[in-house]
Amino acid sequence: MKKYYHIAVAALFLTSAVSCKKYLAKTPEDAYQVTALDYLKTGTDYQTMAVSVYTPLQWLNQVVPVGDIASDNAVAGGESASDVLDLQQIDDYSLTPVNGTLSNIWQFAYEGVNRANYLTQYKAANPAGQSVNFAGKDALYGEVYFLRAFYYFTLAKMFGDVPLFTDKRLDISATGQIKRSPKAAVYLTIESDLNAAIGVLPTSQTGAAGRATKYAAQALLGKVYLYQGKYDSAATVLQSVIAANAYTLVPDFKSIFLLAGENGPESVFEIQYSSVGAASYGVQPAEQGPGNYQVQQCGVRGLTASSPLMPYASGYSTNLPTQDLNNAYSPGDQRKAATCLDIDAYSAANPSWGIKYLVAPYKNTGLYSQKYQPYIGQDGSSGAFQLNYPNNYRTIRYSDVLLMAAEALNKSTAPNDVLAQTYLNQVRRRAFQVNDASHDVTATGSSLYLAIINERRLEFGMEGERFFDLVRTGQAASVIPGFKVGKNEVFPIPSTEVTGAGLTQNAGY
């Protein structure tokens, strides 16, 4: 059974064995029990455990739909008002501290923090007090620092002030002792971890895809600076990624989100998924295997076809793009079709395929998330519900680096709007697949800033960025119905953490 860490640590009951004679005293190993003293004896042990620090990234897949459903980009959808109730509450702004999706995000992010902390706790010496040195150890710890920063960034942008601990993993002694730290302090720790990672990570990784690099750490640091309004610092670190010439924009936007496009020339950091080890419907997200089950959520409910040419599999019809997002794209923008799937138009364009589907899911918009549509034959499970799709999350793309740099340059102490326009227009020229200036933005100042933020919506629609962009730029209340200033900038702390660990609740919840 897997265990996931809450701040409210469950009580641990110890049973004592019957009294034994001294000469029969046993060690835990005699009962074939693995203890901390058995860990981290070799470099391979450290490397294996570092891989485990990546695993909770896969479980955080619901951060992406939340980032769009909580905004003007998407609605929860589903079969009825009671279907995926957690997402319905987020969509309607009726959410309470009792929300399974938010609780999972909190829980899984802290699981990642705990795993990272376990390794940093034993960096100098293992649990037995022995120093273990091996080639690449510093770089390996760069990955651990990057991952811990990623988990804390997820927590800070979702919940604001959160418990902060980095010296060791949480254990029973911390029950009731951990308090929330100011978000500013959490961000400083994230910055420290990322700067440490930048100092030791390589610019590229060999072997398994998805491992953090120096450029990924710099890009994430740039985003962390932007969230705090530290524009000068953001501009500096993001321009260093651009100057490296390590990434290029992929001409065919839609291809980025196909399996063949994973870990491509535009990928700065991707969360890796696999269809191997699938589980069945009804288990917890972290127990469904290493697949991206959010992909199943995006699929069209009841979708079938008589033709083998039909590429899409059926799904749950949740996380539906809005017509507002669909209409935001200008004619000729290839990102529209790559972001919003109009199933009626798709069926009409292929009349001989015999496509059938349920046309009226709850809050039906007629649109589905094209970027993460489930494809037939790509999952690893059997039965009616296919929960393990191998679609990676393109967590940081090069276009994100360009647009973040453009924003930072526009808002810097000494703005450079010419260079900001250059970065913005690189993204726009790819969007329209032209090499002329017919779609270039020439605005400056505040008008350029708004153009950059709007471009982020078009570029990253249905990738989970929109809500957080609206909040950090102060636009949420004017765009999102039901959004309350002073409350909805963050989500509620899960009730189990408030009652079990004595944490304070966010205002308004």
Short description:
With 509 residues, the protein is mainly alpha-helical. It is built from 18 helices and 10 strands.
What does this structure look like?
With 509 residues, this protein is mostly helical. The chain is 41% helix and 6% strand. A two-stranded antiparallel sheet has the order 1-7. It has a two-stranded antiparallel ribbon with strand order 2-3. 45% of the residues are buried.
Please give a handful of descriptors for the protein shown:
509 residues, mainly alpha, two-stranded antiparallel sheet, 18 helices, 10 strands, 41% helix
Overall radius of gyration? 24 Å
β-strand number: 10
Q: Could you give a short account of the major beta sheet?
A: 2 strands, antiparallel
Low-pLDDT stretches: 8-32
Number of helices: 18
- Overall mean pLDDT score? 89
Distance between the termini: 33 Å
Q: What proportion strand?
A: 5-15%
SSE topology string: HHEHHHEEHHHEHEEEHHEHEEHHHHHH
Fraction of residues in helix:
40-55%
Which oligomerization state do the chains in this entry correspond to?
single chain
Spatially, the strands of the biggest sheet line up as 1-7
What would the principal axes of the Cα set say about the shape? Answer: globular
List the helices and strands and how they pair.
Elements: H1 43-59, H2 63-69, E1 74-77, H3 85-92, H4 100-121, H5 137-159, E2 162-163, E3 180-181, H6 183-200, H7 214-228, H8 231-243, E4 267-271, H9 294-298, E5 300-301, E6 314-315, E7 318-321, H10 323-327, H11 335-339, E8 340-342, H12 343-349, E9 367-369, E10 393-397, H13 398-411, H14 417-432, H15 445-459, H16 466-472, H17 476-479, H18 495-501
Parallel strand pairs: 5-6
Antiparallel strand pairs: 1-7, 2-3, 4-10, 8-9
Helix pairs in contact: 1-4, 1-5, 4-5, 5-6, 5-7, 6-7, 7-8, 7-13, 8-13, 13-14, 13-15, 14-15
